[in-house]
Amino acid sequence: MDIVVDLLKAFAVGGGICIIGQLLIDFTKMTPGKVLVLFVVAGVVLGAVGVYEPLVDFAGAGATTPLTGFGYALAKGTRQAVAEKGLLGAISGPFSSASVGIMAAVLSGLVVSLFAKPKDK
After folding, report:
1. Average pLDDT in the 107-120 region?
2. Which residues contact 51 (CB under 8 A, 6 or more apart)?
3. d(Cα 91, Cα 81) in Å, to the nearest integer?
4. Residue 21's closest CA among 40, 49, 2?
5. How many CA atoms lie within 13 A of 30 on its CB side?
6. Residue 11 near residue 65 (C-beta atoms within 8 A)
7. Contacts 24+ apart (CB under 8 A), 62-67
8. What is the 3-state secondary structure of 32-93?
9. For 117, which DSSP code?
10. CA distance 66 to 39
11. DSSP labels for 8-27?
């Protein structure tokens, strides 16, 4: 029964984040690209000030899967690397904390590009 509750929490939080993005696209003049950048920056800022951590603890993948979760991972990795390595960690931290997600995106894009056939517009 606990897994059902965890799934519902993740769905509610992840869905809520997606609803916010859709509302921004529908009711403002923001383009989808600007909304994506806003979400990553919001994740970095909320992660840096410690507000996003309780949301991740509550919703798990519902908070880490959207782009705000990517920004949170960047901020968390930077904070940990600075604590371990000093100022050099500010440069290496984001790369090491987000490398798995970035690599998954690159490999997924490669696999899709092998099967997709681009068309001229």
Report:
1. 87
2. none
3. 9
4. 40
5. 17
6. no
7. 62/9, 62/10, 62/11, 62/12, 62/13, 62/14, 62/15, 62/17, 63/10, 63/13, 63/14, 63/17, 65/14, 66/14, 66/17, 66/18, 66/21, 66/39, 67/36, 67/39, 67/40, 67/43
8. HHHHHHHHHHHHHHHHHCCCHHHHHHHHCHHHHCCHHHHHHHHHHHHHHHHHHHHHHHHHHH
9. -
10. 8
11. HHHHHHHHHHHHHHHHHHHH
pTM of the entire structure?
A: 0.79
Q: Does the pLDDT value for residue 87 go beyond 90?
A: no
pLDDT single digits (tens) 38-86: 999 999 999 888 899 999 999 999 999 888 998 998 888 888 888 998 8
Q: Is the dihedral of CA 43, 44, 45, 48 positive or negative?
A: positive
Q: Which of 6, 66, 12 is nearest to 35 (CA)?
A: 66
Distance of CA 94 to the CA centre of its chain: 13
Domain spans of the chain?
2-115
